[in-house]
Amino acid sequence: MTANPLIAAYKKPALYVALPSKGKWYDPQPKLSVDGELAVYAMSARDELITKTPDALFNGEATVALIESCCPDIPNPRQMPVNDLLVVLLAIRQASYGNELSVDIKCTECDAINQMAVDGNVLLSRVTENKHDTLIKLENDFALELTPYTIEDRTRLQIQNVKQQAIVQQLMEAEKAGEESLQEQFGKTFVEIAELSVELVARCIAKVHLPDKEAEPIIEYQDIYDWLKIITKKDYDQIRERVESLSENNIDTVFEAKCLECGKDYKTNIELDIAGFFAG
Questions:
Q1: Rounded Cα distance, 71 and 15, in Å
Q2: Distance of alpha carbon 17 from alpha carbon 25, whole angstroms
């Protein structure tokens, strides 16, 4: 298909951003600049409608659509490692609205809520490469090659967590009325979430090397999933914790602040809420 000359002439990258993953774990790989950075474009009017919808960015399709539009050099956003997500969304916001990001912070001395203006350039300059080792070895000599969660994984887990929270609320109300049917439903939902958690960790295991060094590594998902369900909690937690470490966004969000109410100087870890920071 011939490229639309109007779009080609109008749409230019607003900035380039370094990814914590350095482009690893994508399938297919993103197109990066000669400096290893991703081109980011400003949002269109359509994109802004997505971000203005309450909780839209907790919807996987909305997030994917936004990245497809503003980061076209990522061929398959669903498979983006989740540790790049916050950096990319911050860059999209900066490309669209400018550098300043306002966040609410709580004074450690008097609990007053202050508004702090954070420079997006400073935040993006604090992005570091994720240096956690992707290879992990268990005590029984099994060795695993791991990857971070993807956006698709994150979305599935969030949907299940929302479902669980809704069931918990309904269960509390049902207990007051002496109903038992929702207790069974909650039990089933809890099992579903536990199984999903194992499934998502299994998806982050690229290979399992057996203690027998002569044996071929296991790469079949179903074999890895079935094995993961029978290993000890200690081994499972070790694997899960490393996957979660690989999935961290690697942005230093600790800033110096001064309370306008009591005058206290303090350090604060700002919370970046991806569902709310697209307000212009």
A1: 11
A2: 17
Beta strands in 46-126 (DSSP E): 100-106, 113-119
> Exposure string (b/e) for 152-178, b if CB count within 10 Å is 16 or more?
bbbbbbeebeeeeeebeeebeebeeee
Question: Assign residue 250 a region: left if phi > 0, alpha if psi is -120 to 50, beta otherwise?
Answer: left
Give the span between the Cα atoms of 32 and 75, in whole angstroms: 12
For the stretch 114-156, pLDDT in tens is: 888 888 888 888 888 778 899 999 999 999 999 999 999 988 8
Mind giving me the DSSP string for 229-249?
TTS-HHHHHHHHHHHHHHT--
CA 86 from centre of chain = 7
C-beta separation of 64 from 233 below 8 A: no
Alpha carbon distance 63, 77 (integer Å): 9
Q: Phi, psi at residue 125, to the nearest 5°?
A: -75, -15
pTM of the prediction?
A: 0.83
CA distance 80 to 27: 8
Q: Residue 68: which of 130, 151, 153, 159 has the closest Cα?
A: 151
